[in-house]
Give the backbone structure.
Amino acid sequence: MGDLILGLSIVIIVLTIACLLVVGASGSSASEQVDRPFTLLTLEHLPDPSSTALWHTQLAALRQIGAAGEKGLKAADLTARYASSARLYPELYEGTSFAAWLRFLNKTRLVEVHGVTVFITAEGKCCLKYLEETEQMQLHLL
């Protein structure tokens, strides 16, 4: 288990460094940099092993939003989840904000935000299912 966590941490660090290099080379504005490194993640890259590790950092949030069902979840109820993830994965969340993270989830079509309520989308449910299945596969390999 420790080796898996170490491996995932290394992947996250490498991808974060790559993102910083891309952002620096592109001359992005400060407002664009707030959304980094989430701008590297797209649903099309979900099956790619190098980005799957990053997607797994979103698993707890997707579970929480999905558990709310059709009534949705107040965005404020996700702030603790964001803060927890930011503590667990400081390399990934450094320089981001709760609002930027929520925009990322919305831009990737995992959630829809209506006013102050967040709903999981069909894509979000598929992503959640995929991440849970890959998590189970990883646990069985250990």
Q: What stands out?
A: The radius of gyration is 15 Å.
